[in-house]
Design brief:
There is one protein chain. By secondary structure, this protein is mainly beta. It has one domain (2-113): Sandwich (Immunoglobulin-like), CATH 2.60.40.180. It is 6% helix and 48% strand. The protein has one helix spanning 67-73, and strands at 2-9, 14-15, 20-27, 30-38, 51-52, 59-66, 86-93, 99-106, 111-113. Strands 1, 2, 5, 8 and 9 form a five-stranded mixed sheet that branches. Strand 3 and strand 4 form a beta hairpin. It is globular. The mean pLDDT is 97.
Length: 117
């Protein structure tokens, strides 16, 4: 239970180790930074859950993934300006007693996400 994320690099077929991520709470146009972290070897937050079951609240959130910097660090030559810079996912948590997993599958040119389990 709680909130988690996982990023897979679909260009290389690997977890997106080393990608910078930021988590925010949102309220209309206001955003509050909760934490910033770098994904571990498995493409996950090295500290585990972003929010544990007791801390997760109903509301709106934002995850920002620094996609361009990650791919540049991997040696991928990107055009200027790059097609994707940061991928921003705004999502809502309606049932704080449930688990919300927000995976990102990403390449320099595309991404997809869904509510995982």
């Amino acid at each position: 239970m709680g909130l988690s994320t996982h990023v897979l690099d679909t260009m290389h077929g690997t977890p997106a180790a080393g990608m910078q991520v930021a988590l925010y709470t949102t309220d209309g146009d206001q955003t509050t930074l909760v934490k910033q972290f770098v994904l571990n070897h498995d493409g996950r937050n090295p500290d585990g859950m972003l929010y544990d079951h007791a801390s997760l609240r109903a509301g709106t959130y934002r995850l920002v993934f620094d996609v361009a910097a990650y791919f540049k660090a991997r040696g991928v030559v990107l055009p200027e300006p790059n097609f994707l810079n940061c991928v921003t996912l705004d999502f809502g948590v309606a049932h704080a007693d449930q688990h919300y997993h927000v995976p990102l599958l990403v390449s320099p040119w595309s991404y997809s996400t869904y509510r995982g389990s």
